[in-house]
Amino acid sequence: MRRILGLTLAAMALSAGTAVAGGVSVGAFGGMSLPIVQEDQGNGSLYGVRVPVQIVPLARVEGFWSTSALGDKTVDVGGISQTRTGSDVTTFGVNGILTMGGFYPFAGIGSAKFKRDGVEDTFTSYHFGLGFNIPLAPKFSVDLRGELQAAVKDGTSRKMGNLTLGVSYDILTMP
Amino acid sequence: MRTLRTAVPVLALAALAAAGCFLISGQFVVNHALPTPLTVVSGATLAGTDVDLNTSSSYTDHKDKLKRVEDLALTGDFHNNTPTAATVDVWLVKSAALNLSLAQVQAQGTRLWGPLTVAGNTTESVDWDRSAKLFVGRQALIDEIQGDGHFSLYVIAGGSFNLTLTDGMVIAVIGAAN
Predict the structure, then answer these.
(1) More confident: B175 or B4
(2) What band does B159 get if pLDDT is binned at 50, 70 and 90?
(3) Residue A8 pLDDT
(4) Is A10 exposed, middle or buried (0-12, 13-18, 19+ CB in 10 A)?
């Protein structure tokens, strides 16, 4: 996992060097994280930052970091209600993005740490999704994204549907 | 350019393949209610309680697809029936043997959970969050859940004790995948 991340980050750094034909942006985003088939976690909030690097006209790579606070979940066990506080999830990684007009598909890999009272676990995190970019001003744009995050370990995964709205600012643009 | 255009879909497919069938998976809550009230008194032999997770449909439904145990809890209201403070531990015995002596529990079992201090003639309510922090032998219970799912638990305290556990529950969150 660390090797994959290292190689990807190295590739990203190298591509940034060769990709001055593109540009570099910084962005922040926030939204909701919705656990899928997880009986012990509720819906929660999500926010983070990302640094997209346009390496060629049709492709971007971006490093990202995000944190989410999944919601508490109350389950009825044997007629007694028990509530478990949701996990705090910290994720970082790299996405590859195909830029095709406003809409863009993306996929990525990273590391996700789930933390709650008495439990701390790190997973390999896979990301797949679709985004929509709306330019607001010459250097500003808004991104709406829907993403499936699958945090995988030992042959099973914790899955979340993430819906985010973000803003990006181009800090370096090359013709 | 064409290579780059196909890079993202290829990456996505590779990631899917690397992750296996992770999409057909989930986290499920398995629980086992302990007898209530469960009174345990120090003596020559101790009253262990039988825990057979195979009586839980959530466990039997997913047992053959069980990949990992993600969370554990032992919840309930612990009442100290004596005026002296008690330091409560829970031990797990893999063989599911009951009515063991304290020495036998300590020889055959694994300290699973504790210590929980209960002042004299008071009740300590232990919820899921509090309980999760009290596990000291997490792996022993994980091994049992991934094994035959049948074991016994002993609630004990130091010295002479008389405790009542009400609404006791063993809870596990299991990760299962096809």
Answers:
(1) B175
(2) confident
(3) 45
(4) exposed
Measured CA to CA, the distance from residue A173 to residue B80 in angstroms comes to: 70
Q: Which domains does chain B have, with CATH numbers?
A: 24-177 (2.60.120)
This complex has an ipTM of 0.81
Question: Under CATH, what is the fold of the domain A22-173?
Answer: Porin (2.40.160)
Q: Domain segments of chain A: what residues? A: 22-173
B6-25 tens-digit pLDDT: 665 666 566 566 555 567 78
Please write the tens of the pLDDT for every residue from B103-149: 999 999 999 999 999 999 999 999 999 999 999 998 999 999 999 99
Least CB–CB distance from A38: residue in B12, B23, B27: B27
**Can the peptide bond before residue A138 be classed as cis, meaning omega within 30 degrees of 0?**
no
Helix, strand, coil percentages in chain B from 3-state DSSP, rounded to 5: 30, 45, 30
Chain B contact residues (CB < 8 Å to A): 1, 4-5, 7-9, 11-12, 15-16, 19-20, 22-23, 25-29, 31, 33, 67-68, 70-73, 75, 127-135, 167, 169, 171, 173, 175-177
Q: For residue B20, what is the nearest residue in chain A, using CA coordinates?
A: A155
